[in-house]
What we know:
By secondary structure, chain A is of the alpha/beta class.
Amino acid sequence: MAENKIPYKIYLDESEIPTQWYNVRADMKNKPAPLLNPATLKPMTHADLAPVFCDELIDQELNDTDAYIDIPEEIQNFYKMYRPSPLVRAYFLEKALGTPAKIYYKFEGNNTSGSHKLNSAIAQAYYAKKQGLKGVTTETGAGQWGTALSMACSYFDLDCKVFMVKVSYEQKPFRREVMRTYGASVTPSPSTTTEIGKKILEAHPGTTGSLGCAISEAVEVATHTDGYRYVLGSVLNQVLLHQSVIGLEAKAALEKYNVKPDIIIGCAGGGSNLGGLISPFMGEKLRGENDYKFIAVEPASCPSFTRGKFAYDFCDTGKVCPLAKMYTLGSNFIPSANHAGGLRYHGMSPILSQLYHDGLMEARSVEQTAVFEAATQFARVEGILPAPESSHAIRVAIDEALKCKETGEEKTIVFGLTGTGYFDMVAYEKFNDGVMSDYIPTDEELEQSFAGLPKVDL
Amino acid sequence: MAENKIPYKIYLDESEIPTQWYNVRADMKNKPAPLLNPATLKPMTHADLAPVFCDELIDQELNDTDAYIDIPEEIQNFYKMYRPSPLVRAYFLEKALGTPAKIYYKFEGNNTSGSHKLNSAIAQAYYAKKQGLKGVTTETGAGQWGTALSMACSYFDLDCKVFMVKVSYEQKPFRREVMRTYGASVTPSPSTTTEIGKKILEAHPGTTGSLGCAISEAVEVATHTDGYRYVLGSVLNQVLLHQSVIGLEAKAALEKYNVKPDIIIGCAGGGSNLGGLISPFMGEKLRGENDYKFIAVEPASCPSFTRGKFAYDFCDTGKVCPLAKMYTLGSNFIPSANHAGGLRYHGMSPILSQLYHDGLMEARSVEQTAVFEAATQFARVEGILPAPESSHAIRVAIDEALKCKETGEEKTIVFGLTGTGYFDMVAYEKFNDGVMSDYIPTDEELEQSFAGLPKVDL
């Protein structure tokens, strides 16, 4: 089909929603390093993980050989509620930039959780229900994951306990109300409801919280409450597996119009959206079938890829979770309080970490005022007010498109628009008032944080 | 096609976005009564309206003969940003209710303005730009119209001054930030920036504002500022004309699957969404081609159809606007402060008023706690957190579906889901906390308000 026939929004048919997730680990020569038991420093077994995670999710976590895993019918049904998501040709943005580049974005924000997080939330809730559990616990940073999980748990009639990073809890009271509307309970973290929360509060009375703290609290409650398990919205292999629906749909939509992307861009906090978006394309690259340039975009205030170490680290502040080998800033790292939105996790998906380490993808860090400039420009021309997280990808997509304008190259750029910013208006207000600031951690601060890395010799 | 093949979401192709609006007045035997000049009590001419409205919009306002009016290409292009909107088969809701009824909803919330209002905003901004104006003024209640107009003005590089009903301004600070992100200025109404605002504040110092006040202020600024005109998000004939895209798309989507609705339901404040949704179906009814049952749903706290008078009334509190013949509670009517969300206008679209008066449609009023019960139920099973306004339609759609459950009838119900409730979490919080209350105006209160109706003998 001629390229000028490409519509503004490419919707797949409902029958084209993927029926299998793609597991990129199957095609990786260098597999991501295994999770380690913090006590023995040996790889975590299924039995080690069983008190924390649901059984079938552990299978998925440890499975690095099967390339495709069936999506259960109940999850496929739920996906029909909000999927397929549109792949949008950014004609308006291209015109505003005057670029010869062709820009597409996969938009995951057209659901009430406001982001891609629902893709994994419904899967994790399903397996929890199937196992006969009463409920699950989790943490949430910007609130997108907590909202998604609340929706998923409500659907399967599961109890849902959310620990929300305190700074987000305070900046986003309305996020809490959405979660409550879906029947979840929401506690600001660190809290006095857990032993670990109390300890953290004693050591750092003024802390605004971090994902690392909230994870520790959620895991403590899950492992101390009968019929509960802990679920996580990013970082883990299982989450990237579920999020592969994003990339599978995007690839199918592009192939309908014979479009092959040159550059694929995604924001990266824990890596779930980026990993999901690039997985099937990365598979082709790993199998030598096609080449693509992948760019992970992270905040300059929380630069795990670009300034972190590739090392085993604790996944949480309380050090109750397994150790993961990943790009990390150290589990004590907390982004400065002026950092808006999510993407504030100290570590990074072990899958993406390995791929980055092996030179299969690039990473870039951007400052938040530049991110909000891109967000505002995008909102005005494309008519979608983006989440701060997603706007990191927009920033670099615009930068790459402007490079094409200079060189005259007609590159095809695809980026992940993970969600909407309707609950981020405090950050937009700061930007609109001209009082948003940037902060980049100093080398000394990072060194101090790296000093807390565990000593692991394998 | 067999009915069980109907997908969850019916998307038209981009090429199926309507290229003409449908003007239901052309098929009405009893035309809506003309707007009257408040000084002469004679029908407003084009010249009378020119200081207030854009020229081409006046043509549309006065045109009750042409059944179809071309949508300019620039507006068609903008529509591609967020249209066609999905017609959703509410399989999840049907299952939860256990009803044999088949429920569909036309969802207009998948755009950053969060509602259908963008359909008319972009048209009005286009004609203002075409006329070479510098900017427009308007009022907004719940904030959806103001947001939509901000987006539209940003697209055409027009200045946008929004007067926002004070109670909404205070309940929804984030709405203001979205409008500012799109470059609009937002003033809480009544304000001291206009003569009329000052007068109203003197007479009612503690007022939380009303659409009627905000309209007066916006009109004053438009008529006193060079290169500005006033635009309105509902009530007017031109707005219903633009909103006919909703009904045209819904009808085309249903016809693809040979579905004929029995009942069509919409919430009604000023009538723009309901009028737009039902227009092409009403056309068939007026021409004797098909019959449908139409139900307008309004808040019991602001019951223009069900308890109002069909009479000429002022459109605004300051009495600067033309008189319209409509169902009205009197221009001094202000809903009680506990009323959440929009649907708070004292009057109703003259087109819908005439149709209702002629027995061509029904109306029902519902109390807000029952509305939020329906909203929460809907959010949990359909995965969309609805706007309070839209939830009025959900309430009656559920009621009708439950009647079918009793009788065993397999009726087909279509309702308008006009928008999302992401900026209405203060109201949801009240409901979640169990402190939301209902208020129904007493007959005495209404009589007092009716006493302010102008005496017009024609």
